């Protein structure tokens, strides 16, 4: 028969205090004199007492757990975000559960049910699937949800996004400033907020410079390396190559680098490439990728803080927070003015 471990009553007896006082001290819901606290700490250590975390959470009326839902975890952007969320949650005494949706509608709806089932107290939510009317209607029922990276139109949750327009404009401004005039744009699904905003920035930079911006130079599909590979074949079939390509994600840009190299097109000598995100991969590929940095870690930290603050003060909405986007110059852009 398995021997039972020490109980909170055992700790109270050894410390010479009431069970209630010990319980409240361990739950950090009471301030005791330093000497009294020391007696409890010594009793806990001597007895090897471990608190029943499940019972403690139930007694406090919550799971002390938050969830993070992302489309995938192999993308370094989402893994960096997850690490920052976990650290922020841990500092506030919360655990983290990760949900990977693979952009499947039923899985996304299922993760929302974690709140109903008290598996989590709230969710940080990322979707890369545009036009999800069902998700829009469902997510509006929950106040304890914070949207990250992409918007779900018609929702009123707290949201943390990047300065997409400004970042894209700066990327194309840099290409124009370094002598590029025929610039293509390779980007994600038409309906995504980030896609629309980065396209706005692309067009704005052309307008500022007095350059034409043809729809024939804009390519939509998804944020994937495979699309980056596939779109190269389309670009190379055109009568004239672009001077440069602004890719709306590093994943797309890296796929393009691979396929351009396979086809004997030199980057940046024959074609310059700029990405967006500044994931860890951007500094590891050859050539190292010039890109727009949006900090996945900062987005995760701010989002987790917003969610935990909302759980502490229900009903307080802070609206949309935008994190900065900044140009990181590496080796994938040729200065054509020389």
UniProtKB/TrEMBL annotation:
<keyword id="KW-0560">Oxidoreductase</keyword>
<dbReference type="GO" id="GO:0004601">
    <property type="term" value="F:peroxidase activity"/>
</dbReference>
<dbReference type="InterPro" id="IPR028082">
    <property type="entry name" value="Peripla_BP_I"/>
</dbReference>
<dbReference type="InterPro" id="IPR000843">
    <property type="entry name" value="HTH_LacI"/>
</dbReference>
<dbReference type="InterPro" id="IPR046335">
    <property type="entry name" value="LacI/GalR-like_sensor"/>
</dbReference>
<dbReference type="InterPro" id="IPR010982">
    <property type="entry name" value="Lambda_DNA-bd_dom_sf"/>
</dbReference>
<dbReference type="GO" id="GO:0003700">
    <property type="term" value="F:DNA-binding transcription factor activity"/>
</dbReference>
<dbReference type="GO" id="GO:0000976">
    <property type="term" value="F:transcription cis-regulatory region binding"/>
</dbReference>
<keyword id="KW-0238">DNA-binding</keyword>
<keyword id="KW-0804">Transcription</keyword>
<dbReference type="Pfam" id="PF00356">
    <property type="entry name" value="LacI"/>
</dbReference>
<protein>
    <submittedName>
        <fullName>Cytochrome-c peroxidase</fullName>
    </submittedName>
</protein>
<feature type="domain" description="HTH lacI-type">
    <location>
        <begin position="6"/>
        <end position="60"/>
    </location>
</feature>
<keyword id="KW-0575">Peroxidase</keyword>
<dbReference type="Pfam" id="PF13377">
    <property type="entry name" value="Peripla_BP_3"/>
</dbReference>
<keyword id="KW-0805">Transcription regulation</keyword>
């Amino acid at each position: 028969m398995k021997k039972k471990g020490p109980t909170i009553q055992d700790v109270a007896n050894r410390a010479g205090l009431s069970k209630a006082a010990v319980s409240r001290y361990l739950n950090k819901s009471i301030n005791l004199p330093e000497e009294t606290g020391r007696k409890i700490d010594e009793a806990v250590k001597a007895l090897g007492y471990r608190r029943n975390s499940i019972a403690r959470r139930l007694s406090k009326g919550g799971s002390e757990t938050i969830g993070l839902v992302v489309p995938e975890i192999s993308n370094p952007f989402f893994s960096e975000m997850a690490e920052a969320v976990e650290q922020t949650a841990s500092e506030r005494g919360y655990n983290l559960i990760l949900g990977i949706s693979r952009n499947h509608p039923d899985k996304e709806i299922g993760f929302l049910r974690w709140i109903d089932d008290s598996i989590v107290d709230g969710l940080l939510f990322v979707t890369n699937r545009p036009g999800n009317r069902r998700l829009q209607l469902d997510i509006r029922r929950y106040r304890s949800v914070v949207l990250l990276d992409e918007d779900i139109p018609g929702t009123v949750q707290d949201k943390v996004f990047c300065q997409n327009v400004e970042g894209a404009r700066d990327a194309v401004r840099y290409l124009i400033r370094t002598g590029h005039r025929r610039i293509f744009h390779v980007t994600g699904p038409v309906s995504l907020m980030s896609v629309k905003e980065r396209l706005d920035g692309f067009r704005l930079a052309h307008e500022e410079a007095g350059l034409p911006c043809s729809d024939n130079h804009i390519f939509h599909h998804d944020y994937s390396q495979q699309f980056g590979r596939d779109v190269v074949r389309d670009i190379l079939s055109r009568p004239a190559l672009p001077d440069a390509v602004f890719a709306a994600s590093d994943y797309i840009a890296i796929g393009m680098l691979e396929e351009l190299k396979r086809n004997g097109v030199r980057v940046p000598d024959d074609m310059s490439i700029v990405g967006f995100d500044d994931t860890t991969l951007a500094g590891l590929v050859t050539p190292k990728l010039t890109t727009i940095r949006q900090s996945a870690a900062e987005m995760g930290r701010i989002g987790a803080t917003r969610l935990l603050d909302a759980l502490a003060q229900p009903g307080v909405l802070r609206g949309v927070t935008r994190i900065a986007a900044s140009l990181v110059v590496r080796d994938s852009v040729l200065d054509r003015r020389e």
